[in-house]
Specification:
By secondary structure, this protein is of the alpha/beta class. The chain has 31 helices and 32 strands. It has a ten-stranded parallel beta sheet with strand order 19-20-21-22-23-24-27-30-31-32, with helices on one face. The protein has an eight-stranded parallel beta sheet with strand order 9-10-12-14-15-16-17-18. Strands 2-3-4-1-5 form a five-stranded parallel beta sheet, sandwiched between helices. Helix 10 (251-259) runs parallel beside helix 11 (269-280) and helix 16 (368-376) packs parallel to helix 18 (398-406). The two termini are 46 Å apart. The protein binds 2-acetamido-2-deoxy-beta-D-glucopyranose (4 copies).
Amino acid sequence: MADALISVLLERLVSITYEYMEGELKHVLNVKEDVDKFTRTLRVIRAVLEDAEQRQVTDEAVKIWLDELKDISYQMVDVLDEWNTDILKQQVEKQEREQNALVPINKKVRFSSFSRCFCFGNVSRVIFHRDIALKIKDLNDKLTEICDETKKYQFLRKELGIQQLQQPQRPQTASYVNMSEIFGREKEQNILITKLLGDSSEEEKGLLIIPIVGMGGMGKTTLTQLAYNDDRVKSRFEIRKWVCVSDPFDEIKIAKAIIGEDAPNSNELDEVLQCMSRSIQGKRFLLVLDDVWTDDREKWEKLKVPLMQSGAKGSKILVTTRKHVVANMMRATGNMINLGELSDEYSLSIFNHMAFSDNDGHESKVFGDISKEIVKKCKGLPLAAKTLGSLMQNKRTIREWKEVLNSKLWDLEKVEQEVFQPLFLSYYDLSPTNKCCLLYCAIFPKDYDFQRDDLIKFWMAQDYVNLRGNKERGITGDAVFDNLVARSFFQDFEKNRNTGTITGCKMHDIVHDFVQFLTKNECLIMDHTECATSESKLLGDKVRHLTLRYVPEGPLDISSNNCKKLRTLATFDSRITTIDSNLILQLKCLRTLNLSGNSIKELPEEIGELIHLRHIDLSYNDLEKLPDTICGLYNLSTLHLVWCSNLKKLPENMGNLINLKHLYVELCEDLKSLPKGIGRLTSLRTLDVCRCGGDNDEAFQIGDLRKLNLEGSLEIQLVGDATDKSDVEKAQLWDKKLFDLTVDFKRQTNSSSSVEILNALRPHPDLESLGILYHNGTTWPNWIPSLHNLRLLSVGGGTQCELWPLGKLEYLERLTLWKMDGMKKVGVEFLGLEDQTSFGIRSPQILFPKLKRLGFGMMSNWEEWEGVEEWTKEDSEITIMPCLSKLIIQDCSLLKALPDFLFKTPLQTLRIPGSERLLERYQEGNGEWAKISATNPNIRITRRASRELVLLCLTDFDEAFA
Ligand SMILES: *[C@@H]1O[C@H](CO)[C@@H](O)[C@H](O)[C@H]1NC(C)=O
Ligand SMILES: *[C@@H]1O[C@H](CO)[C@@H](O)[C@H](O)[C@H]1NC(C)=O
Ligand SMILES: *[C@@H]1O[C@H](CO)[C@@H](O)[C@H](O)[C@H]1NC(C)=O
Ligand SMILES: *[C@@H]1O[C@H](CO)[C@@H](O)[C@H](O)[C@H]1NC(C)=O
């Protein structure tokens, strides 16, 4: 299935080439003509690609031809990328020269090793240009040859108006129900029939639309057939119509199908719709639209409006679709029925039913255990159980059964044809970019937790998304992700608690088998156990994405010369200690290198030669340093170094990584500081932790944040001596679109001026989440009241100050305070009131209007929490914490009592571990407890044996609190 890949490559090539022409390259040889010609030839070839793609399945020669084409395309991408890298290199050199001119002579920075390579200046560059030009010429000749060969194959051209090139047949469904196919959907069936028979008054007016959503093969149509043929449903509706919609969505065809035999010959939409209206006028109808793909609201409305106006009250439409967006488009998600995986037990029933159709069950016992194993492969997909069951119908020996059990699912032709068929339909419906992105998922092991942002970065690293010149970087990646989600290629979603956006997901095993099937020669997951048994299992020379698993402790050893084409190399569950420089030197085409979670101490310098690298993940390794040469990877856009706890420093020249967008250095505790050059990286969007300060000239100072256009989350850790306030102001934090900021003074040796520093760190007013750690002042930063969107606030660690009146922060949802040793009493000021008398003032106020979770931890001197004795909701205009649902007070051993107002909030959970006095006071059974449960019958008090708990950092506490 190479067409997707080639299409995207072509798109890239076609859009890329002209950019390069503006540079010096055009003066070299005939390079401009060559590139133009290459582009033209590609366009010619593109026209026949779709046909070639279909034919390669049966025609080996076509397959070879396609592989060659792909190879040339990849090579061209690489050559152009080399050229682009050279342009980047010149930019870096220019920057370095300018930088150097600013520095006084006696402090001149040594030229980086890269600049040194080029001090021969123009001579080497001319040679380099010549090389590029020659390579392009050569590729051009090869492509021309490939193009000439198309004549031999007589491919169909797309321009000739042949739109539908042998797309797989969409099955025509009918309302006829085959009872043998329904197992384990009783619950959904009941819900559906209840909805169909239901007649609640709110539905009376409109037309009830019920979408049934699920991936191909989940049994949507079967379920619908069943409801459609239910006797109660039959007698409820005067007209029932079943229309198999599929793609494209043709309103005229659908309307005619609804009319039935009396449909007019006309192809005028209006006329047909009018006729349709007449045919259902005043009648209660049930319409099934099976397999809807379109999410074009206009088309849908054209059909829906006359249906709504003509039908009688209580008419209903059932829609089956694989795409969640369809339900959205119809504005019918409220009534949606989602079909998920079937349990193994039910799958087994289906399987047995198919395999032993006319037997009494005696035979099924013989194969019992094997059946169960085979059914596990179906992963809850009824269609797969059915297909595999029918595959076994004619097999009656244990040997045959074991063969099926031990084969890879997609090697079974029947499975390929039947189980994958509905997936093929979904797949062909995708655009080339979407196809590529989906196929790339084949390099991840089954059950992998896909994280939206990581996946998008991987796609970007392969240049699938984010066209060059597209200023809004990353947007395309999000669109692809959402699209694949909407089409049921992903499942088991993980959502952001606050925004509801999907941040992570998994892929159904059958879909995973499917993408692996489609990428059979290109993407390979190789388990070390496999390599070991087959001695030196050679990589096929077409493998471009390789995932290794279970590599044992020792050097990385890919015993083959075939890694020259690899564009992705990743490891899972491995313990590699070293990588040989000769191996690295072979990986010249690499875009993505993920060595996360190994035991690597040192990377070879040669990594600097892998100029195409865009994504490197070295997290969770034993690295002490990185080779300086890494700073020559001008295309690098993501570098993960999370929890490299031995890492002492980063290379000085990191400022040369002019494409670096994401740098992760969280939990690198040994890292004293960041190199100053990072302050030049104007492309940088993510820097998870910024350790600023130290007396070293080469160290990143807080003012160096100024030029960085950071977004998202940032943790600022101040180290060393007190930071200079004027330097802090230079950072201009208020200009950065951060939604989450943490400032940590823990590593600062003398933090007496921390409040001034905090004042100078005023964040963007849109900030939503704030953490302040080990702030040593007696007052709070003056900008807190101006954070109108603040939803999460955590403060902790040795703070001396009194509590700030936080009750007026309109959007605050979670507040966590811990280890503030100076705090003895929480007064009414905390609520945002001046003193007790303020409660008498009759001006309506809501204090902590949105607060849901409140937590205090390890306040060792806290004795009193001031209440408001007289306050009752009824006679005060003041409302306190009307949304509070969870309160935790941990290890506050001196606190005597809780304020009364708390028990008038809708509090659900109160946890007070390690707060002995409170525990005593609120013993179940004594008077205080009775008082609480009388005002708030929902409340539960949880108290575990006071366990020793050391809260290391804020996040730990936040988690305990969640
Ligand atoms: C190198 O080329 C640039 C223009 O591309 C020119 O300004 C410079 O003088 C040249 N340097 C040498 C050493 O020839
Ligand atoms: C029900 O479906 C199965 C498999 O698709 C088929 O073999 C069987 O003949 C069908 N039953 C009827 C009554 O059509
Ligand atoms: C890199 O591989 C590890 C497993 O070794 C995986 O958990 C991680 O998600 C991968 N890195 C990224 C950025 O996705
Ligand atoms: C906190 O500030 C006080 C003076 O305000 C100072 O004596 C103390 O050393 C500071 N503590 C730390 C940890 O910096």
